[in-house]
Write a structure and sequence with these properties.
homodimer, 268 residues, alpha+beta, Glutamine Phosphoribosylpyrophosphate, subunit 1, domain 1, 2 domains, five-stranded antiparallel sheet, 6 helices, 12 strands, disordered C terminus, UCP009120_prtse (chains A, B), proteasome (chains A, B), Putative proteasome-type protease (chains A, B), protease (chains A, B)
Amino acid sequence: MTYCLAMTLDDGLVFASDSRTNAGADQVAMYSKTHTFELEKERVFVLLTAGNLATSQAVLARIKRDIEDEVEESLYSVRGLSDAAAYLGRINREEREKHEDTLTKAGFSVDASFILGGQIEQQPPEIYLIYPQGNFITTSSHTRFLQIGESKYGKPILDRIIAGETSLGDAARCALVSIDSTMRSNVTVGPPIEVIVYEKDTLAFEHYLCLDADDEYLIDLKRTWDDNIRRAFQDLPRFDWEGTRGQKRRGTQMAALRKATQKMTKKG
Amino acid sequence: MTYCLAMTLDDGLVFASDSRTNAGADQVAMYSKTHTFELEKERVFVLLTAGNLATSQAVLARIKRDIEDEVEESLYSVRGLSDAAAYLGRINREEREKHEDTLTKAGFSVDASFILGGQIEQQPPEIYLIYPQGNFITTSSHTRFLQIGESKYGKPILDRIIAGETSLGDAARCALVSIDSTMRSNVTVGPPIEVIVYEKDTLAFEHYLCLDADDEYLIDLKRTWDDNIRRAFQDLPRFDWEGTRGQKRRGTQMAALRKATQKMTKKG
């Protein structure tokens, strides 16, 4: 499995990915899922990949080949980010069709999903999620992040923290916590964690991190977060039976359960 | 969907469940998924249900009928908790078989899962997860909680907090946070939230809460947790580009990205 996410914030974009791929429990490997394309001072793209590794590698090779061959439609020729997403959707569909029948017959999935983000000249920075079928969505002022792969474990912390005005640093930290939480709960997501922070209108990559499991910053972040979470628990409001407040509500609650229980136990 | 969880702690057991059921987006209803059975001072059971509502209601009706009819094998006659789990597995299998063919043909799932926990006389308290096929598992000293339904969103906080020595109050609060996080991220899980805290060797239910969305304690807990999470973020270690420390590592990281990027862009 895989977990990648990207965010659109007022100050720019944040991308993060894990690096574990697995086909069954005995075929676990490490692959970077973060790929960058840059025409300095003109256009920058970050591509995150999830799903079938052969399909995503084939799509990646197509993107590079199309750039090298300077074909009519490539990441360096498209007019806007949405055109780049449409281009990626097309080649994703074309690459999957080459192997779909044989893989489906064999009981495998040929699906690959992508997050493509970046900025072209003075157009606003954008991110797009490209589905295995080639269609795609982008973010909105209410929905600031997109996820691919094993996305559920790490979503609640994003839902709580990420908003348009969130600073790029906080957003990147939140992405790390989101991926760390996923790694703790699911063994198919693993380090190193890659993070790219893109500052709006710079048209260049300046903040990139690749954090191994033993990276001092990641260890520091994880320990601090763990400590803070435990502290966050300590001053949560107590239950009635732990203290003195709200005895009344507890009383009524207990009455409700007694009633339900008695009915079930009348012949017990 | 549904989200239920239960925990075995040194001091006793904690059970929690949401109350939303849905068959498609336009068939959303509210059902309690927490059911209790009590032979005072002899045996207590809590049953949490997830999956096909017809199957779980049929199983529940069977349990009550078997108690009322005082049949040979019922929750009030079984020798231990594992026998209760085996009994539940059997009637779950029997009830699903009545409708499996027709529902599967119609494209529906007949699956229902259960968590059954409690204590019989002086035996240790236990919880069991009963699968739709009737087999079952329990907890261990390393794995303190079991979940059914929409379990991924709420798992990371349990992985961080729950251990054998966790107090019943902290465990119940953690269960509420786990369900609240799930409700925020997934609309098929909803209030009221029911919580039962069972103190080891009491053989009676004393702490029960049913918290509606507008319950003052739940609102208080959610607001405090939200504030604490935000505060927990504020003192996480900063990135290099936000401060002054670790310039060296950032330098090497950036070099790595430049190299990768240049290769891709040489003909761009």
